[in-house]
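User: Quick sanity check before I run a bigger batch. Here is a single chain. Can you write out its predicted 3D structure?
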Amino acid sequence: MGLFCGDLNGPLAAQLVDEDQQEPIFRIGELEQIYSFRQRRNRMGQFAPDGSIGVVETRRGKFDFYVPNGPSMVRLSGTPTKPGRSRRKVRIEGLPGIFNHVAGGPVFEDPLTKTRFMIYHAEIHRFSPQDFYSVLGLAVAIDRKGLKFRDLGIIIRPNRSLDEMHDPIDIGGGTFVISDEYLLVYFRDYLEAGGSAELAVARISFVELLADAQLGLTPQFQKYFEGDWLEPGIGGRASPLEIGNPANAWCAVSYNHVLDRFVLAISQWTPELSDLYLATSVDGLNWTSRQPIDLSPREQFYPSIIGMEPIPWVSGTSFFIYYTDSELGGWNRWQDARFVRRRIDLMPPTDAHQTP
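Assistant: Done. Predicted structure follows.
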């Protein structure tokens, strides 16, 4: 069990984890409002951010933010404190006609060619927009501005098929990590045998991904299942990665080069509350127990980890977790949701016996 110091929602909260495991200590900063409800709607979009945010640095201190806005996408350009200085529409060409909703999404850039790739969340609606089946796809930018993408196809589909769907199937936003020459994508899987793998992962070698994209082929991901990477990304089985398989409403994963660990920010949803938690992993597969970031009696949703490094999807000694904060929550969140962030400062495990 973790040890906690201070008010988790106060000006500066400190969090200690089990000293025997020598896990890192996180200092949790005060809640910062980036945009109020009205500012968010005017600057980002009526339903933005309706999922995971993609970030690419364009020049020092300036960034492109790819933000889902309901069934569409926008690219905001600005700074970490004022991301919505300008807004442009983003579109993906060549999408299948079966999708009722498509929005990106996490974005990464090939360091050699500067080509941008986007992981998108796509939905097939049955009887209403709230009754949907979702998958993850991949698209590649076809212009230098990063406003036009070409679809490369579906990369991850739940183990449970559309025909076997009883309740909505929300796979998540496709948060990713690039590590050891692999692209790892995290998601929630729904199992044909029943139940779910709340936090699951699939991967592909980065070299293979780039080669497939150049040829216009759909990259073939492999899901992690019972110790191996042999299950296909399309419909294969997946193992839950966290002990006890706790609920995952939406999550963000980042590689932290200071810790040499993976960092997870996750919205743990229940019918009453949706709180925000943090966990770490040495290998991206086995995770520590979750530690709370925000337990206020509101909904904390759609977390995105943005680092202070030249590569924003890599986190360092300090990083930010951006998310929506809503009193109403659920399908009503867009009537009051504001866009906020918290700064996370960490201390390596070797300093774990020092009280902040």
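The chain has one domain: 3-351.

User: Great, the batch can go ahead then.
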